[in-house]
Amino acid sequence: MSDPGTRDARIRETLAAAFPGASFTLTDDSHLHRGHAGARDGKGHFRLEITAAVFDGLPLLARHRTVFAALAGLMDTDIHALSIDAKSPRERGA
User: Fold this and answer.
1) In total, how many domains does the chain have?
2) CATH number reported for the structural domain that contains residue 29 in this entry
3) What pTM was estimated for this model as a whole?
């Protein structure tokens, strides 16, 4: 089981490296899932809102696959569930 503080930092660092120039908000919702079978292994439940140019023109499934690919190693060790809202800057009006 990993330390939640360092787990968040690892996720943030990984996202920043994989999506240079992106803006994102990562919310740890693990406290909402205490007692859940998947939460017992020490992995967390997260919500990610990310805005990156790489998503421009990509369908939703491709955006999610891109995020999951970037976080692949952490999905095995730190992340049990991840809700993703991925948009391009144009879609967010940025």
Assistant:
1) 1
2) 3.30.300.90
3) 0.85
Domain that holds residue 53: 4-92
Q: What is the pLDDT of residue 72?
A: 95
**CA 33, 4, 81: angle at the middle one, nearest 5?**
40
Cβ atoms of 82 and 50 within 8 Å: the answer is no
Mind giving me the DSSP string for 31-93?
A: GGGTT-GGGGGS-EEEEEEEE-GGGTT--HHHHHHHHHHHTHHHHHHTEEEEEEEEE-HHHHT
Tens-place pLDDT, residues 13-48:
999 999 999 999 999 998 665 665 655 566 888 999
